[in-house]
Amino acid sequence: MAEGKFRVVHYLNQFFGQVGGEEKANVPPEARDGAVGPGLGLKAALGPAAEIVGTVICGDGYFAENIDTATVQVMELVKKYNPDLLVAGPAFHAGRYGTACGAVCVAAQEKLGIPAVTAMYPENPGVDLYRKDLYILPTGDSAASMRQVLPKLGALALKLVQGETIGHPDEEGYIPRGIRRNIMADKPAAQRAVDILLAKIEGQPFTTELPMPEFDRVDPNPPVTNMAQATVALVTSGGIVPKGNPDRIEASSASKFGKYSVAGLDNLTAETHETAHGGYDPTYANEDPDRVVPLDVMRDLEQDGIIGKTFDYFYSTVGNGTSVANSAKFGAEIAQDLKENGVNAVLLTST
Amino acid sequence: MVKEIERAGLPVVHMCTVIPISLTVGANRIVPTVAIPYPLGDPELPAAEERALRRQLVEKGLKSLETPVDGQVVFEE
Lengths: 351, 77
What we know:
- The complex is a heterodimer.
- By secondary structure, chain A is α/β, with parallel strands linked by helices.
- Chain A has 11 helices and 12 strands.
- In chain A, β5, α5 and β6 (about 135-140) form a beta-alpha-beta unit.
- Chain A is globular.
- Chain A starts with 5 loop residues before the first strand and ends with a strand.
- In chain A, about 45% of the residues are buried.
- The model of chain A has no long low-confidence stretch (mean pLDDT about 95).
- By secondary structure, chain B is of the alpha/beta class.
- Chain B has 3 helices and 3 strands, in the order αβαβαβ.
- In chain B, strands 1-2-3 form a 3-stranded parallel sheet, with helices on both faces.
- The mean pLDDT of chain B is about 95.
- The chains are: A alpha/beta, B alpha/beta.
- Chains A and B meet through α2, α4, α5, α9 and α10 of A and α1, β1, α2 and α3 of B.
- β12 (about 345-350) of chain A pairs parallel with β1 of chain B.
């Protein structure tokens, strides 16, 4: 390795790290010298000023199920390369991967004191979790956008490691972090505000100086007071469907949900049901779908008088890369139907 | 989904493994589960024990639905 180059460590999941697919999602962190997979494109984007000295790879399932331990393990491997910068991903719309990239970058900043940057789809849950602490570049929802994002990732990474000032998100292209900086304006605030108001009245484009945060929290409902009389419904984003997936719910980016009768069933079995969900190893859910939609114990709880009854239908969709807009729509439609049918409470399971 | 069900006026518990995602999504009652591919089970256990574990988790979910909460609560052990 040439002297004087910035040392970069790249974080990848098991898939992009070429360890394997979902069957390898449980592999703990490991390190490889040099660049792997998308690291080759990143290396080109970084150019001669920086060198990818190592790649740390971890299974998405392992990371998501052991976030704290996995972060420490990844940091130990990263630290050995004595890096100046960490780059993670891009994670696109993979929720577990995006969460891992965010956690690893924040840890690199805080524990190792080095800059870090990642990239993912704006709806990836990793964005809301880490955007305040981290530069995250937006990507498309699939690896098809890899070629577009790597040059941008490389450019921002170089700026960070060279200690350059990072400009406004509009100029640099990263997802806004909500950081405010004092700047000198050429007009006083009152005049700027009136200008914006006039533009608004005239229907002209304008940019607010104070975007309102979008808080969308829903207050919790009061608890169920008499569970022994209550009708409880099962809902899942884990993709459990009758065998053969009659509604053809998509394995990712679902456009619909299904409503399936459990009347007369004691439990869900490998013969009657399966999962349509991509993105996690389906072996265990297919072997016994009760592991995702716990009908068997709901029947036990009915018998023991702990709940009144299980609603005669369960609702299912696939929560893999499904848009927030679709998820919200499914939720609202399911809720409406549950209310019309006198359901009192809901158990929603996610994989 | 969980937020829209809550918004419609039904108490709902989100039973899932990746708690940070559930918190971001805006679930109010959250019960941590076993693992992503088998939230309510454990293929390592004999069938009877697995079913007992599942019952314990579902009972925890029901308990959360019977508990008044003010905001987001993760119902740990």
